[in-house]
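I had to read the description of the data format several times before I understood it. In essence, backbone conformation is discretised, so a fold becomes a row of integers matching the chain in length. I therefore recommend that a typical entry be quoted early in the introduction. For illustration, here is how one protein appears when written out as sequence plus structure tokens.

***
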Amino acid sequence: MTEIDKGENRRKDRAAGAVGPGRPSAGAPSPINPMHVLLPLALAQFINAYDTTAMNVAVSKVVTNLHTTVSGVQAALVIYSLVMAACMITGSKLGDIWGRNRTFAIGVTMYGVGALITALSLNLGMMTFGWSLLEGLGSALMIPAIFALVGTVLPPGKDRLKGYAIIGSAAAGGAAMGPLLMGFWATLGTWTWRLSFVSEVVVVVVVLTLMRRIGKAPAVENKPKLDIVGAVLSALGLALIVLGVLQASQYGWIHTRQPVVISGKEIIPAGGISPVIPFVVAGIVLLALFILWQRHKSRVGKEPLIELSLFKSRSVAVGMPVILMLMFMQAGLLFVVPVFLQISLNLSPILCGLAILPLTVFVILFSQFTGKLTKRFSPKTLILVGMALVPLGIIFIWALLSDKPAAWQVIPGGIIVGIGVGLANAPLLNVVQSSAPAKDQSEISGINRAFSNLGGSFGTAVAGAVLISVLISSTLSLFGGNALAQKYVTAKHKLEFKQALNKDAQTISDEQARALFSKVEAEALKENPNLPPTVANDLKDIMVGINQKSRNKALLAALLAVGIIGILGFCLSFFLPRIPKSKEESDDEPVDEQAAS
């Protein structure tokens, strides 16, 4: 018998009530109102999702208000993602050790304190401590607890499915409302971005006030001890992978487009190996060591950080990658579309948020229909339809924007994406979470959220990498194809343009391009005194036009890449077990015990 088989037997014994570490206490919780449970949990999920997308809109305001740099604020964004990704699995295990209700309360409180410190920040260091560190750690504690509480406090069947639908709707709503609400706050002044974090503190107070209405999650006897070695290995492994992937848009996946400089010293020259590769490889090695360590812990009869036997369930083994792909598509879409609307179509953050709002509305609407739809269709059918609609909607947005782009063209495809996410999200979460008994709800929640974070990181990184590579290659190609540009745009100018793009790892607006190319115009006049000023001005206009064409082409290429890669999620969904409706709605046994065997 392998150590995974032993872990599987141990998990089944605990689910059946055998005495052992982490066994649920006897006695079922008294009936409760599902909305009493879901309101505080949904509010906490909303502000977390809101926070992850809101800050991107306020970067320039934060730079001005805190007298810092764009790279400094972007570093804070990266640290926030790293802290959440690194600590999510450990945070879920602490839910078993401290209790899920208590862990949720600690996480929400830490998150609120972090938001308050961020709102009162005097400098970048203070903001990084409050936002990147405290809010990141708070999220790592409260997010797995949210899913574990839904999976243990709410009864199986329609109430639990409705719970996952509402939590999923809150996440989608928060992510979409981030640019809209922060855009509103940021337009009021250079300091008013802080009001966004003040509003988060208010929501935290409401959540803590409502917490007493949440039913008590089943306690655990013989509480497990935290696997410190496993926690460190998993945290470092996940952090390195996320850190590596996030470097792709700036440096490229294989060869670095610009020198890697640390403390003024060049570590990797341009054209050398991209830092993505060593970071990701190191992360994979550490995760491999983590798996070996977990097997060792199980083999000697000690409590591992996660039960590897959970992955013997086909719902988990297939469902986790599908969750990753669903988040990949959402993150990629919400990265590209706002940039296109704001940079290419000159929309304000508020109007940009309004253009994306229908997507959110349809996520919420169709999430609420899933309970009724599961009476007629199996969860697998809903997941398949949803995972087909999401890439279809993304590709539809790409098709409309490819010809005379306008803001309204985002809406039809956004509605299709919203319907797809609404149909797939709740059944997918329910299938994965319900595949584990009550004892393992914290662990499965942590793994679930870790895959979700990886998917979000990959979505943003792939979209950014495709965008910047197509933008640079297309721009240089158009420069070479224009006689006037070919004559006066030197290799030095092209290098400066590439460096300007790489610096922000994004796109350059027409206004920024005009300012950048004014230097080329001035140098052309200086080096060619007889050159008519009108010709020099035409040169600048040509280069601005080239930037515009290349930028739109690159954004559309990134959007198409996200949609095409997202089809993989639909293909993976076919390997999910088919779960009978009666089985899912009648009991709380692992949903695929028979289907997966």
Summary: The CA atoms of residues 324 and 454 lie 7 Å apart. The longest strand covers residues 265-268. DSSP finds 21 helices and four strands in the chain.
